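Notes from hallway chat w/ T.B., transcribed later so I don't forget. T.B. wanted the structure written out for a chain they're using in a teaching module, and asked if we could keep both sequence and C-alpha cells in one place. Agreed to drop them here.
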Amino acid sequence: MSENRPGPPAAEHREPALELLVHGVGGTTPQEMLGDPRTVRVTGDGTAGIHRRTDDADAEGRPQDPEGERPGGPAAGRARPIPEAYCWSNLTSGNSARALWLLLLPFMVANLAHWMRPAAPARHPAQRIYDVLVRLVALSLTVLLTAAACEVALDLVAWQCAASARCTGGKSWLDPIAGGWWSQPGRRLVLAALLPAGLTALLWWLSHRTWSAYESASPPPRPPGPAHPQPGGERPALSLPGFWYGRRLVSRLRAAHTAAGLLTVATALLAAALDHDRRPGGPVPAAWGWAAAAAVTAGWAATVLVVARKGRTESEPDEGIDRLASTVLPGAALGVLVLVAGYAAWPRPGWSSSAQLPGTGAFAWLTLLQGALAAALAVTAYVLHRAAPPGSCAGRCAMGGLGGAAVALLACALGGVLTGGAAQRVADWLDKDGTPGVAGGAIAGPPVLLSWQAAVIPLLLLVVLAFALGAAVHAARERRRLTPGIVDAYEGEPRELASRSRQIARAVAWARLTDAAPALIASVTAATLLLGGGALAGAARTGLPPGPAARTWPGPLPAVADAVQALGSWLMGALVVLLVTVGRRAYRDAAARRTIGILWDVGTFWPRAAHPFAPPCYAERAVPDLTWRMCTWTARTGGRLVISGHSQGSVLAAAAVWQLDPVTRGRVALLTYGSPLERLYGRWFPSCFGPGPLRALSEEVDCWRNLWRLTDPIGGPVLVGGEDGEPEVDRGPLRDPLQYGRTPEHPLPEPVLGHGDYQADPAFDAERAALLDRLAAVRDGAAVPSQGAPAGKPVPAGGPEADGGPHREESGAPAG
C-alpha cells in the first residue's frame, strides 16, 4: 500500500479551507453527511443544493475557532476545513412517480452504447459511423415502442376484438366502436390511433420538460488555458466546455423521434387501408393511396436524414436550435398522419376485419434491421478498438471494446421483451375465455414472432442462472483460498475463531464478482443473439406459434414447447409490472434504492446523445452546480478547497474538476473513495475514463488521492502510476475491518465496511489534511510533498495489491 509522505510544514495560512462533500448512489440527507441535525441550505433548491451546518453558515466571515483546529496537524493554527454537502439525490429519486422512468429502460441502455465507444482518436473516420449506427438503433427502438402501442390499440382492440362478438361481450367500453358509424374498420383504427399518437406526444413533452428541469444548466465561463492532452495529443472529452450542454442535438433528435412515432402510426393505418384498396373497384381513388404512401415515404426519409446528419458538438456549449428540424419535421409528420387518417376513414362499404391487422409482419423486419445494425456496430467498434493508441485500454476494456455493440443489442432485446409482454398480456385480458391465436380463441392474438420471442425467454434465464451459479461457486472457492491469510494482516491483535477470517474472506470474494460483469454481459449477449435468431427463423418458417408448430415433433416435445411458450409469455408480461413495482419500491425504500441505484445512476449519468426520450441526465445539472460552486467560492475567498466524492459522487467530482479553469484548479484538491472511476467507468467507457483520460486528469490536478478497499464491490484503484511506476493517486487497499478481533479499545467486533463509511477510517482524515497541506505548499511555492510513496508492509496474502497495483486474482487479505 502507499502512504502520504509528509512534506515540510507549509507556511501558516488564515484563509478558509472548504471540504465539499458529494454523496454516492442511493442518496443521503445533509444531516447524515454533515453529522449534525441542524443544517441550512446555503445555495441551490429542493432538487439539488449545497448545505452546511447551521453553525457554519457564515464561517468564512468569522475568525478561526481554536476548538476547530485539527489536532496534531502539521501546521499549528490551521483549522479543520469547513464542511458542506452537495445533495443531488432528488435528481434521480425525488418522488415515486419517477419509477415510471424504468419503462424507458431500453432507451437509456441504447444511449449508453454511444458512450461505450473505444478510445480511438476523435477524428478517426469510423467514429462518425459508430455515432450514426447508435442513433439509428435508438431510432428503431422508438419505432418499436410505438409499433407496440399500435399492436395493442389498433390490432388487438380495434381490428380483432371489436370485430368479434365473443370478445366484445361484457366489455361495454367497446360498444361505441363495435356498432354504428365507428364500426367500419378504418374508422375504428383512426380512433384507436389516438393512443399511440398520444404516447408519442407524451414522450415529446417529457423530453422537453426534463431538459428544462435537469439539463439546461449552463457551465460557468472559463478563460482559455493549457490542458494536459491524453495520448495522441487530444484533450479529454470531459474537459471540453460543451460536454455537459448539448441543447441542439437533443432538440433535433427529439423532433426526429417524435416524427418517427407519428409516422409509425401513419404507416400502420396506411397498411390496413392499402391492403383493402388493392382490390379492383374500390370506392377510394387509387391516387389518394399513392399520395399518402409518397408522403409517408418522404417523411421517413427526412427523419432518417435528420438523425444521421450531425452528432454532438462538444468544443463549445451547443446552445442553438435547428428550427427547421425541430419545428417543421414534427409538424409535417403530424400533417402526414392527418392525411393518412382521412384516407383510412373514408367510407368503404363491405370492409370487414379478420385475423391480424395487415402490416404486423413489420415486427420481423424491424427485428432483422436491429440485428444488422448491432452487427455493423460491432464491426465498427472492433475497427476503433484496433485504432486506439497504445496503452489506452491496458487490457481492461470490457469485452475487447465491443461493450457498446453488446449493450445496443441488449437494448433491442429488452425493447422486444417489453413489446411482446404488453401485447401478450393485453391479448390474454381481451380473450379471457380462450387462448389468443389458438383454435377456439376469440381473437387471432399478437404476431407469431412475439410468441417465439416469449418462448426463448426461459432459455435465456437459464443462461443467466447458470452464470450466477458458476459465480457463486467461484466466490466460495475464492473465500476458502483467502481465509488462511486473512489473520496475517493484523499484527499484534488477539486471534479469533476461523469464522472471523471466513467472514472477511467472503466479503473480499463477493466484492471481486463485480469484475465478472463483462463475462456475464458477453454470455447474455451471445445467448440473445442465438436465441433471437432462432425465434426469427422459427416464426418465418412455420408461421405458427412454437406450441402448434411443434405438434409434429416426437415424444413430449410438443408439451414442452407449449409450456415454454406459456411461461415465456407470462414472464414477458410480468416484466412490465415488475419494473414499475421495483421502481416504486426503490424510490420509497432506501435499501432497495441502493441495490439498483448503481445501474440506474450510471445510465442517467451520461447526456442524451443517442436517444432523446431516455431518462434525463442528472450530471448536466450536477456537474455545472459543482463547477460554479468551486469557481465562485475560491474566487471570493481565495481559500483552498477539497472536493470529496464517494462512489458515484467521485465521478461527479472528477467531471466537475475537469471543467475548471487552470487557475481555479490550482486551488482545488480531489479526494475520491469507493470510486468506480476505473473499475466500472474506465472499463466500460474507455474513451472518457480510460487510462489516457485518467492520466491527463492526474496531471491537471496537483492534489488527488483515491482510497479503496478489497471488500468494496464497486470502488477500486484508479491505477494511475508515477514515472517510477509507484502509485501516484491510490492509497490502498485500506484495512477492512479496522480491527480483527476484540481489543480493550474495541471490545465489540468491528463491522466489515465494504463500500460504505470510508470517513470512519483514520486514513481519510490523514489524506484530507495532506491534500490541504499540499495545496498550501503549491500556493506558497514551497517544496511539494509527493502525493504517494511506498510505505508500510506488504499484505501477506496478496502483496501485489498493497502498493495500489491492479486487481489481481491472487491478491488476498484487506490490510492497511
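Follow-up for T.B.: Residues 483 and 502 are 5 Å apart (CA to CA). Might be a good example for the class.
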